[in-house]
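Final report, results section. Input specification for complex C-07:
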Amino acid sequence: MPDIPYKDKGSILGPLKTLGFFARRPVTEPFEPRPAADSYRGFHVNDWEKCIGCSTCQKVCDNAAITMVKIPGLPEDPVLGVRNERPAIDYGRCCWCGLCVDICPTGSISLTTEYVHVCRENELDSYFVLPDPNGIHGKHFDKGWDKTADADLVDLHQQPMGEVEPQQRDDNFDEIVHGFTSQQAIIEASRCVQCGMCHESCPTHMNAPEYIRAIWEGNAEEAVRQIYRSNPFSHVCGRVCTRRCETACSIGRRGDPVAIRWLKRYAMDAVSDERIREIAAEGKVDYISGKKIAIIGAGPAGLTAAYDLVKKGHDVTVFEALDKPGGMTRYGIPEYRLPYDRLDADVEVITSLGVTIQYNTRIGRDIGMDVLERDYDAVVVAIGLQQGRSTRIPGSDHKQVRKAVKLLRKITQGKPFKVPRTAVVIGGGNVAMDIARSLARLQKQQYGEVRMTVAALEDFDHFLADPEEVTEAREEGVVILDSRGPKQCLVDENGKLIGLATLGVVSIFDQDGRFAPRYDDSDEQVHQADMVIESIGQMTDVSLFGDELTERLEWNRGRLRVDENGRTSEPWLWSAGDMVFGPDVVHAVADGHRVAAGIEEYLGVKQ
Amino acid sequence: MRPENYQAKNHPPSHEFELNFGPNHPGIEGNYAFKVKLNGDTVLSARADGGYLHRGFEKLMEGRLWIQNIALVPRICVPDPVPMEVCYSLAIEELGGLEVPERAQWIRVMQLEMSRLAAHLFAFGGHAATTGMYTTMFWGVADRDLILDRFEELTGGRVYSIYNIPGGVRREVPDGFLERMSSLLDYLESRLPDYDNLFFRNQVFIKRARDVGAMTQEQALKWGVTGPNLRATGLAFDVRRDDPYLVYDQLDFEIPTEPGGDALSRNLVRRSELKQSIRILRQVIERLPSIRGPIRCPIPNPLAWNVPAGESYTRVESSKGELAYYVVSTGGDKPYRVHVRGPSSMHAVQVLENLAVGSRLEDVAQIMFSLDACPPEVDR
Amino acid sequence: MSEHGEGHSAAYERIRSKKTLGEILEVATSFEKAAFEFYTALIPKVSKNLRYLVEELAGEEQGHYELFTSLAGNPDIESRIQDEIKTPAEDRRFSDFVQLPDLGDHPDDQAILQYALGREDAAMKQYRELADSTEPGPVHDLFEYLAKEETLHKQELEKQYYEIVYSGGPGNG
Amino acid sequence: MSKELNIWLDNLLSDIESVQFQRRNSRRVRVDVGSEALPALLELLQGRASYVHLSAITCVDWIEDGQFELVYHVWSYETRSLVSVHTRIPRDPGVYLSIYDLYQPAAFFERDIHEMYGLYFEGSPDMEKFILTEWNGPPPMRKDFDGEAFVNEHFHWEQYHPQWLKDLEEEGGGITVRPEDVR
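Structure output:
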C-alpha cells in the first residue's frame, strides 16, 4: 500500500499552509468563448461544390437530425451522380457525434470549432440550419472534426476481381474474368451506402440498391428478382455493361465505386438458369391478348421489348437476319468477354415465355415491310448499327482493308479467313480493342506470336476504350499507339497492302470540346501490316424500309424521328436500340422497355 | 406571515416523517430521488425512486444500427462515459471477431484512466459538498475540467467523447498530446497534497465520514457491491486485474483497499486510486509512441453491417464499479438486445436502501455520495 | 475532282485579274451561288434520311451568298472587312486526306461531307493564295476575310464529319 | 487452484443432466439449463463452486419463439471466472421463480425485468414499479412495443420553418427527404 500522508493527524499549524495560496496565480477565464481544440466537434459546414446530395449522412445520423433539402440552381445530373439536394441539420436533435463526417462519401461535410448559438424562444427556427461552407453564423471558424483517413468509414477499395493470367488467355477465347465468390460478393455489396445514384444514372433504372442489398443479405434469388424488374439481359449486362452506375456511384467520388456490374453478374451466376426462368416469369398475365407484334432484330432492344410484350399476353415474333440471337452482343463482343452460353441463357429466359424467333429472315429481302404492316398490330425495328464506317483515306478501298464489325462477326460465326501475320487497327474504342485482341489470339494460335498495332486518334487522356481493355490488350501483346491520325493505306507496286501511314495528332478537341484534330505533318509513321482494320464507327443499314417507306417516314439528322415512346411518324412502327441512341447494351434494354410500354399503351387505345 | 389559507396540520402521533431527497435536493443531481422515513433524525426506512434522466437506452439501442449506438452509450453515465463506449465496443468486437489493434488498446486504456481520474475528482468533490466543504468540490470540478481539455483535444468532445468504436478508436492521437498529458499529470500529482490537506486529512471530514454508511465485507458481497465501494471493505478485487481486458495485464498498478467499509474508507480508496491512475497513465505515455500500427481494424460499412449472431458478456472496471454489457445479435444490422449492467443502479437502489436504515438524516447525502452512484445510469 | 471543282479553279483565276473589291465580291458571290445550286440539285437525289445534310450545306452556301451580296452593297465594306480579319482562323489539315469521291447518283452522308470538305478546302486555299499574292491594302484584306470564312466553314464540316463517321464511341459492339 | 476448480466445475457441469455447457475461454462459461433445474444449479454454483457474485440477470424477449430467455451471470472471486446460465421460459404467462434467497441483488434485477418485460418472479421481495410509476401501457422492453411509433403518436416534433427554407420553397425547392423517411 502506497504511503499517503492523509492518515497522520498533522500539525496544529496545518491551516497556515493555506497562506501559501497567496503566492499562487489566480485562475481567470475570459468572457469570450474559449477557442476549441483542433478536432472539436462543433457546428457543421458543408462544401457545396463537393457535396452530391447522396444523403448518406442522413442514413447514418443516429438522432434523425438530418433532412435533405432541394436547392434549385445547384447542378443536378443523374449521369454524373449529382443531386441538387443538401443536408439540413436540426440542432435540436444533433448530438455532434460526427458520424456524418466519417461516412460522407465525398468528404464534403465537416464539423467546425464553432460551438455557441444562442436564441430566444421565438427564434427556435434558427435551430434548423442548412450548412454551407460559411458556417452557421457566417463567421469563419477553423475546421474541427474533419474527414481523415483514420476516421473514414467508407471502404474505398473494391474487392479484387480475379482474372486469367495473360499467358493463359492470349491464345484462346475462354472468359477472362472469374467473377466474385459469394464471400467477395457479400463484402463488395456491403460497401454500398444505398444512395441510389446508380439507379438514377442507369438508362433502364435498374434497382441496383435493392439487388445489392439482397446480395449482402445472402439472398441471390431476391437479387435476381430485383434485377429482372428492369433488365432481362443481365448475364450480358453483368459482364459487358458500360456501367454508368459505377460512374455515378457516390463511393467512387474518393475511391473505387461499388463493383455493381460484377455484383449483378454474381447474382445471375449464383442462381440456376431454371430458377431464373421461373423468377422472370413471375407477373406474366394468364390470358392471351390476341394482339400480334413483329420485332425486327433479335438484339437486346428487340428482345427486351419482346420480353415485356409477351408478359402482357401478346403474340410476339422476332425476325432475325442471322442464324443466332443476340445481335451485337453476340457478333460484336468477343467470347472472352461474354461467353455465348450466358447470352443464350438470357435469350432462353425470353423464349421460354413464349417469344418466337424466326432466324435467317432478313426483312426487306425475305419479307417486305408492307407485309409486316399488314399482318401485325405493331412493328418494332431494332436492327442496331451493323455496318462499319470507313475512313476513306487513300488506299482504304484495298481488299485487305477490312471493317472491324464484319471481321468480328466472321470470327463469331467461325467462318474461315486468312489471319494476318501483321495487322493495324484504326480506332480507339472498345470495338477496336475487341478486334485487336481477337486477332491477337488467332495470331498466337496460328503463328505463335502477336503482331498487332492499334492506332487511335485520341490521346490516352481522352481515350474511348475502357482503361482495363487497354491494359488487358497490352498484356496480351497488342501495341496501342495514341494520337495517330490515319493518312494513307500503303500498297506496293504489285498491289499488295504493305502498311498504314499515320500522322501525329497535336490536339483533338477545339476550345468548345468538339472534335477537331490537328496534325503534325513532320511526324509521319509507317506501320507495317498485311491487313488494316477500320474500327471508327458504325451505322445502320436502313435499306429494309425501301424507297417508299423511307419517303413516308420522318427523319432527324439521319436517324429515324421517334417520339418519347420510340414511335416513328408511322403509327404502327416503333424503333429502338442502337439505331436510335448509338451503341450501348443497357441503353438498348431501356429502349426496349420504352417501346414496349408505348406499344402497350397504343394497343390499349387501338382496341 | 402566514398565507390566509394556512391551517396547521395535525401530525401523526408516531413522530414518523417522510422526506423526499431529490430531485431538487442540492445534495443530488438528476431526477433520481430518495425517500426516507424518519423518526426524529433517524432513518427508519428508505426507498429509491427512479427518475427520467436519459431514460430508455436499452430500448433505443435495439432500434439503431450497431455503430449509431456509440453516440448513445456514453450518456448512460455522464461523469464516467468512456467505460460505456469501451465496454459496448468490446462486446461487438467479441461478437464480430474483430481484432483490435494494439495501439488502439493502449489508447483506450489511456482514456479509461483519464475518465477515472475525472470521475473520482468529481465524486469526492461531490461528497465534500455534502459535508459543506465546497472548496473541495470547486477544486475537483476545476481540475476535472483540465482533463476534459485533454479529452476535447483527443476526441473532439469534452464529456461525450464518442471516440471508441467497434474495432478501435476513431482518430490518431494529436501531435504533442502525450507531452501535454504528461504535464497535466505532473500538475494533478502536485495537487494531491493540496487535496489531502484540504479534505482527506481534514478532521472535520474524517470525523463526519467515519462509520457512516458502514458495511462489512460479508454484507458487501451479499448485496452485490463492486468497485471502490467493495475495495473499501478490504477486498482487493478489480476487473482490470482479475478479469483483464485490453492491455491491463501488461500494466503495473496496485489495487488500494481500506478496511472500514464506511464513507471515509470509500473516499480514501478513490483518493488512492487517483495515484494509481496517474501511474498507469505515465506507463501509457511511455509505451504508446513505440506501439505503432493502425488505430482501428477494418470494419464493414456501418450502414450494411451485420454482426454475426451470438451473445457476449463483457465487463470493465468503471470508476463506480463493475460495468458489463450483455449484447445479443441475431445476425442483423441492429442489436437484438443490449443489457447494461451498471454499477450505479445496484449501489443506488438496494445497497443505499440497506445502508441508510438507522443512519441519521444529515448523513444520508454523505452515504449517497460515498457510494458514487450516477443518476442517469440508475434511471437508465 | 468533279467538273465543278475545275469550274471553280478557272473562276479563281478570273478573280486574280480583278482589282477592285466590288468586282472581286461579284465573282465570289457567283461561286457561292453555283455551290448553292449544286446542293439544291443534289437534294432529291439522296435518300430522305440524308437530305438534312445536303439541305444544311445548301443553306450554308446561301448564307454566304447573301453575305457577299450585302457586302457588295455596303459603302463601308473596307472598314468592315478590316474589322473581321484581326484573328484569322488557322487551317487544320484534316480534310487533306479525305479522298474526293465521285458523288454518283445515290451518295451517302460520308461522300457528301467529303465532297463538301473538298470544296471548302479548295476555296480556302484559293483565297489564301490570292491573299498572299496581294500587297497589303483593301484587296488583300478582302481575300484574307474570304479565306477565313471558308476556313471556318471547313472546320465546322470537319467536326460534323467526325461526329457522323467516327461515331464509334465507348460502345459494346 | 483456480485451474483445478475450473476442471472440477467442468466435470460437475458435464455430469448434470439437462445441462448443456460450453467453455468459451478460461474465464467464460455458458450453461444452458431447463428452467426447472436452474435454481438448483445456481445453488450448486454458489454453494459448492464459489460463484457468490450475481453480476446481472438479463431478459431477452424471443417473441417469435414465444419465449423469454433469462441469463444469470455469476462470478467467482476465487476461480475468477464468469458463468452465464441461460434458460428459457414461456412468454405466456411469464411467471418464474425468484432467486432472491440465493442472491440478494436478484431483487433489483427481477424488479427491473418485471417492470420492463412483465415477467413475474414468484418469491421476489419487491415487484413494485421503479421507473414506470405513471405508465399503464404494455411492458415497454417487449419486442411488440414499438417505442418510436409511440413517441411519434404521442409527442409533437418541433416543426421548423426558417426563412431560408421559405426562400427555397419559393424558388421551387424545399424539403425532399425527412429523417423519419429513412429510418
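Strands of chain B lie at 16-21, 33-39, 42-49, 164-165, 168-169, 310-318, 321-329, 337-341. Chains B and C do not touch (no CB pair under 8 Å). This concludes the modelling results for the funded period.
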